Amino acid sequence: MVLAQDLRDAVLQAAFSGNLTEQLTSDTNVQITIDIIKSEKNALIKKKNARDDVNFPEIDEDEKAFLIPENWSWARIGDVGIYKKGPFGSALTKSMFIPKSDDSIKVYEQKNAIQKDFSLGDYYISKEYYEDKMKSFTVESGDLIVSCAGTIGETYVMPDNIELGIINQALMRMNIVDSVNIDYFLKYFDHILKEEARKKSKGSAIKNIPPFDIFKKMLIPLPPIEEQQRIVDRINELMKKIDEYEKVEKGLLALEQRFPDDMKNALLQAAMQGKLTEQLESDSSVDEMLDSIKEEKKQLIKEKKIKKEKTLPPIEEDDIPFDIPDNWRWERFANIAILNPRNSLDDALEISFIPMPLISTRFDGSHEFEIKKWKDVKKGYTHFANGDIAIAKITPCFENSKAAIFSGLKNGIGVGTTELHVAR
Hints:
Blueprint (H helix, E strand, L loop, with lengths): L3 H13 L13 H18 L25 E4 L4 E5 L18 E5 L1 H5 L9 E3 H8 L3 E2 L4 E4 L7 E3 L7 E3 L3 E6 L5 H19 L11 H4 L3 E4 L2 H48 L13 H17 L47 E5 L15 E4 H4 L4 E4 L3 E4 L2 H5 L3 E3 L7 E4 L3 E4 L1
Parallel strand pairs: 3-8, 11-16
Antiparallel strand pairs: 1-10, 2-9, 3-4, 5-8, 6-7, 6-9, 11-12, 13-16, 14-15, 14-17
Helix pairs in contact: 1-7
């Protein structure tokens, strides 16, 4: 079965290799877009007072992970934006945090990116420390924040009217140029860059976004700006359908997992309702069988082999859980069985002693059980014999199929745990 996540990955791979949308001659020449991107990045550097990147090396053919259309271009991540990681650990510690006030500046955390909520968190620093040491870490409306440790790659575009604040050590701030569709960038980042970040992080237990000298050199395929929007629209359209498929898929998987039990239950239910076999006119009368059982029990009482039982109430319409064929009958269980019978045997004879761990469905006597003298166990234990049915009284054992039809018992007799009900 094709999993929904496999479909998502296939859609995204097709999108970023130019196989999901049509390339139009009316689209802006991508080289023009590349030139505009350079100009826009320089403007961002000035606006954010950021350090200019050194020139990145030319893109080698071996770096290109897949083919893209002729009117697209490969670029480095560092070419399409500016990036700032949070302050070094000792530069921002809890001892510096103060209560919120008119003179405080908010410290944004990983949970703001992970939960997509700027209002979370109550860490603040003084305005004085902000102006003196932390101003380069400022986060503003429109900035992208990214979780960089533990749960890596969760992104959040900071909305309008946020509190003036800074990023903490576990966040990265990204500002992407206008000529790269932010939704296109984020979808690519989530699909490819997050995975690359995991692979290239240095092997601590908690993975991190890789160092900037690696991160900024990662590649991104750039279509014309118009096609970027078409790709985003097409991805969103297909992901909605995949989400719908996933619901069906989960239902089918659940059904598949339940099928053996459901089939077994359905077969047993059909059998007990008389729908699994044909009722034949040549069959003996069930009424005669019930009369024979009554006579047999009367004889056992007369011979003092069993005690006389209380008369059970007649079966009412409300007692009947489902319909059965006309030539079948409902009967109370105690009327067709001897419940918890007692055995009688010569004291010197040996019998089987069976503890609870050996009780299992269709017990067949093949286990190596203990042999005891009848005189030592005839009191204080549950009695049973070959052919008897045993069912556990206690719920945990009952739920784990602690039931048995006994056979192969020494001298045809056995005793065991008092946690069993026995029917003969």
